[in-house]
Amino acid sequence: MRVVNICTATQERSPGTVCLKMAATISSVQCMGKITENEMQRQTDVITSIKPIALPKGVKKLCELCKKPAFMQCLQCRVTFYCGSDHQTSDWEGIHDQICTQLIPLRSPEPHFSTESKRKEHADELFQQKRQLLQLTRAVGQKLLFEGKAEKAIPAVLQSLHFAIEVYGLSSIELVTSYLMLAEACIGLHRLKEAEDYLSQAQWTVLMVPDCDYRIKSQVHRQIGRLCEVKGDYEEALRHLAEDVYHCSIVTSTDDVETSGGYFHMGNIFLKLGKTDKAETLYYRVLKIWHKYLTGIVTFNVEEEEKSSSLLTSPKMINLGKAQEAEAVKVLSAIHAWYSEMSDRHQLEFSYSCKTQALLNFVIGDRSQAKVCAERALEALGDDEKKQHTRRAIASFLNLCRTTPQPSLSRR
Ligand SMILES: [Zn+2]
Ligand SMILES: [Zn+2]
């Protein structure tokens, strides 16, 4: 990680005014690099004391994160600038170390080309590179969000927004994913005004696209619902989550795992409102949906393992994607914690939740933990004669956990 102070000169490299607004928001949000006048002066002194690096004249350099005047420069790529070491460090740790050198051709002056076709070829290459960087920065940001590192995710998600604007333009629906991720990060950090700004951008973009995908509408409503929940506006939150469920069920179904996220958040709100019965109904519905979904995957994977071992081929296992796995862990753990507290009154449901935990662990490759959860499910069921069928089903799954080896493709 190398940086050098620079002379302040050059034009803003922001792809658009929205970006500038976003970046300004981030600077106030993150509070990582608030520079005092003394510090500014100190940095300026340092700048004047070092030999300036050759930069285009007559234009102003701006900080990569907050778009305030820049005083430092990444020595590795020399095309990225910062207001101070705090923002440089945050950017480096969040995303810049992974894209540093790739930014050089994107931010350097266009070379001279002997023919128009060569110039076009170069432009096409840069366009493809921006698309790849969009995917990379989005994936990095998403991963950090899944890991609960909201603050660290912001530089990567901001970069994804910049690349989305450069590739698709300012009013494209492709920007919505980045807006939602930024809103999610800000909600996680309780920076609600900023989250609201990003969600307004997302909503506005969706409104501007008449044939917008229902799935995107659902995601926007879900995030707004979550923001309203955090703000304590439960009525409005429930309204948005109902919209989320409605739009999501059009593209999936009312009993799809994707739709169940809306039920889960609605359940959380009913719980806060003291409407425990409604919350329980929704939580149980979420459990049932995941139970069915995970059972399907377990059945498929076990058959696939058996088939491949007899044919001596590699099994083509179904894995949850990273996003789905993160959601499953979060949602099912929260519901399981609630049923654990209520296990005296909801013994059967608690057992069912243990079984769902067992299925989830089995699918993500932790079969010893799956076994522990299945044993707990069996234990929680008690000796009631009426539950023989359920008992047999759990015992059969437990047997599966004991007899099938840990998959080599385990991601844990
Ligand atoms: Zn800055
Ligand atoms: Zn760099």
Automatic annotation (TrEMBL):
Record domain MYND-type: where: 63-100
Record InterPro entries: TPR-like_helical_dom_sf, TPR_rpt, Zinc_finger_MYND_domain, Znf_MYND
Top-level taxon in the UniProt lineage: Eukaryota
Record key words, sorted: Metal-binding, Zinc, Zinc-finger
SMART domains: TPR (SM00028)
Gene3D superfamilies associated with the record: 6.10.140.2220, Tetratricopeptide repeat domain
Keyword rRNA-binding part of the UniProt annotation: no
One Pfam family from the record: zf-MYND
Protein name: Zinc finger MYND domain-containing protein 12-like isoform X1
Gene that this sequence comes from: LOC106821631
